[in-house]
């Protein structure tokens, strides 16, 4: 058969991450002798006997009429909250087809896109060593499994020609055999990273000591989603810092539990906490933020925090002032500066408490 693969996220706004399920489907079907191609334009769909389409993001557009075709199969969290039906075992554990996106990526690079934008497509072996998480966080799509279990050996998805590995494990530290997996990763001699992040609330001294010794690529990533967990997060960050001085980021979820001024203060409290432990916040704005009267403020906080070159050197106030300094229009203030002024006028006590905090002053581990 002639089989077409549609990455709906890629064809909509583009994505820096290849679709692992589609790469496994492609690899399996190529092994069966089928001709498999990545569809790069929806006008090409009529030339295929079977089409597989997947999308990760609900907001990615997709021609709905294609789903009426009997030869189209769909999957992914963009279509189903739980991702839809699991892949057959033979497909799930097949070596991903790392060549699926090669033609598309090559053309993009030749047309002027920097190669670094497509590093995930070109430089990384991708897979899950474990699956499952017991947390069942309400904002997370990962609710299919209620515990962490071994999913694959590293060798199942390792491409020896690729210099790095990244893992999509849901909650690695919840798996009792975590040390064995770290040993497998070490045996490859390649640098690796966990893209979903690690659950800092589960972090023990033996975890921290072992992770600090790994050949890890980039910053370690954890999460600080709930202000109510501040004491617990601090307890485990202390354990982490007693064992590791490595670059560390924590996701800071905003706009899920509240859209009011309490959520603004919650964000700043969490940011201040991370400053003290020499960690960088990465502000994640839930889509409900668009309905908040503080939408612009959440946006400016994210822009400040998510750019380390600014966050490490500037307070929030200094960041907004720097934006105004380079603002070209003299008729009105820039958005960042105006947003800061508006909030400070309405909530002077919160502004006084948090707007002048600086990472380099509060970091106890520099």
Structure description:
- The structure is a single chain.
- The protein is α/β, with parallel strands linked by helices.
- The chain has a domain at 1-122.
- It has helices at 8-12, 20-31, 89-92, 102-110, 119-122, 178-188, 205-212, 230-243, 261-276, 295-305, 308-311, 316-325, 335-346, 348-354, 359-362; strands at residues 2-7, 35-38, 50-54, 72-75, 124-127, 130-131, 149-150, 164-167, 191-194, 220-223, 248-254, 280-285.
- It has a 4-stranded parallel sheet. It has a 3-stranded parallel sheet with strand order 5-8-9.
- Helix 7 crosses helix 8 (230-243), helix 12 (316-325) packs across helix 13 and helix 13 packs across helix 14 (348-354).
- It is globular, with a radius of gyration of 23 Å.
Tell me the β content. 5-15%
Q: Which outline best applies?
A: globular
Oligomeric assembly: single chain
**Major sheet strand order:** 2-1-3-4
Instruction: Kindly name the structural category.
Output: alpha/beta
- Radius of gyration, in Å, reads 23 Å
Residue share in helices?
25-40%
N-C termini distance: 59 Å
Taken in chain order, the helices and strands follow as: EHHEEEHHHEEEEHEHEHEHEHHHHHH
**Tally the helices: what do you get?**
15
- Main beta sheet: strand number and arrangement? 4 strands, parallel
Q: Which spans have pLDDT < 50 for at least 5 consecutive residues? A: none
Number of strands: 12
